[in-house]
From TrEMBL:
Binds 1 Mg(2+) ion per subunit. Activated by phosphorylation. This is Phosphoglucosamine mutase. Residues 404-470 form the Alpha-D-phosphohexomutase C-terminal domain. Signal peptide: none annotated.
Length: 478
């Protein structure tokens, strides 16, 4: 465990005489992961560290000007602490902070893109448990902060890079929660082109995970005419993501059946992803959402090259069904920034992850759980309100099993691919299955786990090789 200085000691490290911050002790491995900086609040993520992150991010992004930067947060108990510390650092760097308060991550991306802001920051650990938190930066166009800029910020934090000039001007902090309404109007408008209440008669259950979606999701669906039942609908920092939301669907499935609803939607803690449940209680994951939305866009002539960008996690059943429609499925590495990069490279208009993180640049500048839910609801309404029939007519998934093996040692986890025993076990499994299946082993970029995924034509193959691989990872990495 990294031992960080006390708050008083850390705060004393800014010298008004020399106008610089000294570096705090940090983990040897990279601070920025696949989705910003993430860790346990009070352990890795402390107020002193957050203040320095804000200060150096302000120096790298703002170059001493007084341009605004947008900040949002989820409902975790530590989010207020981190927001205030970040704001202190950003204003010390001369930036103007627009604090949105509680809001989904895509709100930050949207308002950053459509304002004069030089960047955005979201404080959230997404689907992680309440004790975790994270700091995620956005470019001025609403995309995830470029890796080169992340490296510059981290180099400053580690004392490896010096800023040529330090601003002597102080920025200001403003509460701007009223700006969230601009985002709400933007995502509703395309759906109201023909009808003021396009979801009239549609019965929807929303699981808001005690998180960021509690600020707006239910009101948006109701304003469009839907009959809405809400689960976990208040912000609660002690219970965010706990046995609810997009990682725990059982309560939503039960509620959809009990209410006789047409569809259920489950968001994660920061509402940048969503999973659905049909009237039979079946999970409709990101693969199905991409297939259904992609088919709709293809018919409308709005899907260039009939191309969808998914990830290495996407099911083979989805890929082969999409190819039967004449489409092309491109697989990117796991992480929405990799999906986004491949979408730009191939000119794709739709992409996303099995986890429900969907990107559609025609409608949003980032992955957006609420926007995705609205467009899937629109497809359901247009089809007569029956998501189950849409799913039945789409594709059958190949048996797939994903197991998480907890590996607390960060260095061991990130360097798993150098372990000969694990590599030998993977090679053995791949040789045995041939073209009847596939294997994916990777270190999570957001949690202290190694993910082991096996997919094959039969459940027996999946279970056999998953157990073998998980046992090998446990024996040699934990």
């Amino acid at each position: 465990m990294v031992s960080l200085p006390s708050k008083a000691e850390s705060l004393s490290r800014f010298s008004s005489r020399s106008q610089h911050w000294e570096a705090l002790p940090l983990p040897e491995s990279a601070l920025f992961g696949t989705d910003g900086i993430r860790g346990k609040a009070g352990d890795l993520l402390t107020a002193p560290l957050a203040m320095q992150i804000g200060y150096w991010a302000g120096q790298v992004l703002g170059s001493g000007n007084r341009a605004p930067i947008v900040i949002g947060q989820d409902s975790r108990n530590s989010s207020n602490m981190l927001a205030m510390a970040l704001s202190a650092g950003l204003t010390a760097a001369g930036l103007e902070v627009w604090d949105l308060g509680l809001c989904p991550t895509p709100v930050v991306a949207h308002l950053t893109h459509y304002s004069e802001a030089i960047g955005g920051v979201m404080i959230s650990a997404s689907h992680n448990p309440p004790e975790d938190n994270g700091i995620k930066f956005f470019n001025s166009d609403g995309s995830k902060l470029a890796s080169e800029l992340q490296k510059q910020i981290e180099a400053c934090l580690r004392g490896e890079r010096k800023i040529a000039s330090i601003s002597s001007q102080w920025g200001q902090h403003f509460h701007r929660s009223e700006l969230i309404e601009q985002y709400i109007q933007a995502i509703q408008q395309p759906l109201m082109a023909e009808l003021a209440q396009p979801f009239a008669g549609l019965k929807v259950v929303l699981d808001l995970a005690w998180g960021a979606a509690t600020r707006s999701a239910a009101d948006v669906f109701r304003s469009l005419g839907a009959d809405v039942t809400v689960l976990h609908g208040q912000p609660d920092g002690d219970r965010i993501n706990v046995n609810c939301g997009s990682t725990h669907l059982n309560l939503l499935k039960a509620a959809v059946k009990e209410q006789g609803a047409d569809v259920g939607f489950a968001f994660d803690g920061d509402a940048d992803r969503v999973l659905a449940v049909d009237s039979q209680g079946r999970t409709v994951d990101g693969d199905y959402i991409l297939y259904l939305w992609g088919k709709h866009l293809l018919a409308a002539g709005q899907l260039p090259g009939a191309t969808i960008v998914a990830t290495v996690m996407s099911n083979l059943g989805f890929e082969r069904a999409w190819e039967k429609l004449g489409g092309q499925l491109i697989r990117a590495s796991v992480g929405d920034q990799y999906v986004h990069a491949d979408m730009i490279k191939h000119g794709a208009a739709l992409g996303g992850e099995q986890s429900g993180h969907i990107l559609c640049p025609q409608h949003s500048v980032s992955g957006d759980g609420l926007l995705t839910a609205l467009h899937l609801a629109s497809l359901i309404q247009q089809s007569g309100g029956n998501l189950a029939e849409l799913v039945d007519r789409s594709f059958k998934t190949y048996p797939q099993l994903l197991r998480n093996v907890r590996v607390e040692d960060r260095t061991q986890r990130l360097n798993w691919h150098h372990n000969a025993a694990v590599q030998d076990a993977i090679s053995e499994a791949e040789a045995a299955m041939g073209d009847r299946g596939r294997i994916l082993v990777r270190a999570s970029g957001t949690e202290p786990v190694i993910r082991v995924m096996v997919e094959a034509e039969s459940s027996d193959l999946v279970e056999h090789w998953t157990e073998r691989l998980v046992a090998t990872v446990q024996q040699h990495l934990t």
